[in-house]
TrEMBL record:
Keywords: Membrane, Transmembrane, Transmembrane helix, Transport. Gene3D superfamilies: MetI-like. CDD domains: TM_PBP2 (cd06261). Residues 103-314 form the ABC transmembrane type-1 domain. It is found in: Cell membrane; Membrane. This is ABC transporter permease. It is a multi-pass membrane protein. The chain crosses the membrane at residues 7-24, 105-130, 142-165, 185-207, 249-275, 295-314. InterPro entries: MetI-like, MetI-like_sf. Belongs to the binding-protein-dependent transport system permease family.
Length: 329
């Protein structure tokens, strides 16, 4: 029953997000299709869209003369078929094709870097918080505070300037080598080589916040009665630290980690901009720059739904980590 209630809440939230995504463009004064058409002509040097494209834009963003309820039904039908319309800035490429092309890159970059930053930060946070004031804590805590305070796009720019531009250890931009055949072993190696520097900059800039949060929670947890009981029972330090201390201290970090995974779909916008990485974040930046409303709407909806799914998974798994949150049905 608790799981069903939770699922019902998130389904309602997803419906609200989808409905808001439908209504916001239609609240624009006048005809949204005409606004998009003028913007396209401005950015394309006067090029004209065919009549079919204008009809497609009206079907997606609304025709002021059409019935709103019928538009909503058509909108839901398009979503069910993953039809987000046609990109204005890259006409006539469908928006779904652009998202399908950029999503794997974002999941690889932002997903891998988020998981690595979380694991490194949590492990170091447990070690530093278990013995506060010792050498490890005195070194790691100020370092974590420094990396947290430094903007990660500045770290990315510095890494590009030193490691890519001057030392030539890594490529300057892109996600893969255009000289390698797609799917070949050389192509996979180039993807790895192009991804190391962006991933490293994100991990360097974000692991410190995980470390600080876990360290502070560990310092609080080690004074709890159940930790003292584990020590009094003669259990090993490792078991007390992991089973008694870390398991309870990690709960707030786990919730934040689930939220971070939800935002992974949105990509690391600034990092992808710095490295011209072909992910969702760079795609969104390009769509905003060129006023590509169909693409912007689809990316925003994707990010919202991914965040809701991540929250649902976090709420469902949280009770497994903390029995105190389980409800009695």
């Amino acid at each position: 029953m608790p799981l069903l209630r939770r699922a019902g809440f998130y389904l309602a939230a997803a419906w609200a997000a989808i409905t808001a995504n439908f209504l916001i463009p239609r609240l624009m004064p006048g005809d949204p299709a005409e606004v998009i058409l003028r913007q396209f002509q401005k950015t394309s040097g006067g090029e004209q869209l065919p009549p079919g494209a204008i009809d497609n834009i009206r079907a997606l963003f609304g025709d002021p003369k059409a019935n709103l309820f019928q538009q909503y039904l058509d909108y839901l039908d398009n979503l069910a078929h993953l039809d987000f319309g046609v990109s204005v800035s890259r006409f006539p490429v469908p928006v779904s094709d652009l998202i399908a092309a950029g999503l794997p890159w974002t999941l690889m970059l932002a997903g891998v870097s988020t998981v690595l930053a979380f694991v490194i930060g949590v492990v170091l946070g447990i070690v530093t918080g278990w013995r506060p004031g010792r050498l490890t804590d005195s070194v790691m805590t100020p370092l974590a505070m420094f990396t947290t305070a430094v903007p990660y796009f500045w770290v990315a720019l510095l890494a590009v300037w030193v490691l890519a531009f001057h030392l030539h250890w890594f490529p300057l931009s892109g996600g893969y080598s255009p000289d390698e055949a797609t799917g070949s072993f050389g192509y996979l190696l180039s993807v790895l080589r192009y991804g190391i520097l962006p991933v490293a900059t994100i991990v360097f800039a974000s692991a410190g916040s995980w470390l600080m949060g876990m360290r502070n929670m560990t310092v609080t947890t080690i004074s709890e009665d159940y930790v003292q009981l584990g020590r009094a029972k003669g259990l090993s330090t490792w078991r007390v630290m992991t089973r008694y201390g870390a398991r309870n201290a990690i709960l707030p970090s786990f919730t934040s980690f689930a939220l971070a995974l939800g935002h992974v779909v949105g990509g690391s916008l600034l990092t992808e901009m710095v490295f011209s990485y072909p992910g969702i974040g760079f795609l969104l930046f390009d769509a905003i720059d060129k006023r590509d409303y169909p693409l912007m709407q689809a990316v925003f909806l994707l990010i919202t739904l991914a965040t809701l799914c991540a929250n649902f998974v976090a709420d469902s798994v949280y009770s497994l980590l903390d029995p105190r949150t389980r409800e009695v049905s």
